[in-house]
């Protein structure tokens, strides 16, 4: 991806909770309509939703998908995922993302 498209949405807030040579744990907090911005995951990661909610996932090729999150129900993704994540709901949404640095992409 050459560059990030112009941002038209408010940014989500990412707060690093733990970071060392093995792992990065980051909490993401989204107001309705806010986004992470396009990014690529360099490591395998696990997401644990803190709240229920719906995400809109935008891919660099223009395709989109939605994901319904349930608080406490985790999911995993492999290194190399590239996307923009948007809170598609009407309430604030939060999740904790744990990236395992020992498994590079």
Characterization of the model:
- By secondary structure, this protein is mainly β.
- The strands form two sheets. Strands 1-2-9-4-7 form a five-stranded antiparallel β-sheet, with no helix packed on it. The protein has a four-stranded antiparallel β-sheet with strand order 3-8-5-6, with no helix packed on it.
- It is globular, with a radius of gyration of 13 Å.
- It has a domain of 65 residues: Jelly Rolls (Sandwich), CATH 2.60.120.10.
- The protein has no helices and nine strands.
| Spatial separation of the terminal alpha carbons | 16 Å
Instruction: State Rg.
Output: 13 Å
Average pLDDT, rounded to a whole number, is 92
CATH architecture term of the domain at 13-34 and 41-53 and 69-81 and 88-104: Sandwich
Strand content: over 45%
The succession of helices and strands, N to C, reads EEEEEEEEE
Biggest sheet strand line-up: 1-2-9-4-7
| Fourth-level CATH superfamily of the domain at 13-34 and 41-53 and 69-81 and 88-104 | Jelly Rolls
Shape: globular
Q: What is the share of helical residues?
A: under 10%
Q: List the total number of helices.
A: 0
**Number of E-type strands:** 9
CATH fold topology of the domain at 13-34 and 41-53 and 69-81 and 88-104: Jelly Rolls
The low-confidence parts are none
- Tell me, what is the CATH class of the domain at 13-34 and 41-53 and 69-81 and 88-104? Mainly Beta
Structural class: mainly beta
The largest pleated sheet is described as:
5 strands, antiparallel
């Amino acid at each position: 991806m050459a560059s990030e498209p112009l941002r038209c949405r408010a940014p989500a807030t990412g707060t690093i909770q733990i970071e060392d040579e093995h792992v990065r744990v980051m909490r993401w907090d989204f107001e309705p309509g806010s986004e992470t911005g396009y990014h690529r995951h360099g490591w395998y990661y696990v997401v644990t939703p803190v709240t229920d909610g719906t995400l809109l996932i935008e891919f660099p090729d223009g395709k989109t998908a939605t994901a319904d999150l349930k608080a406490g129900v985790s999911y995993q993704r492999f290194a190399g995922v590239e996307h923009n994540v948007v809170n598609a709901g009407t309430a604030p949404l939060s999740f904790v993302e744990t990236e395992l640095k020992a498994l590079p992409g």
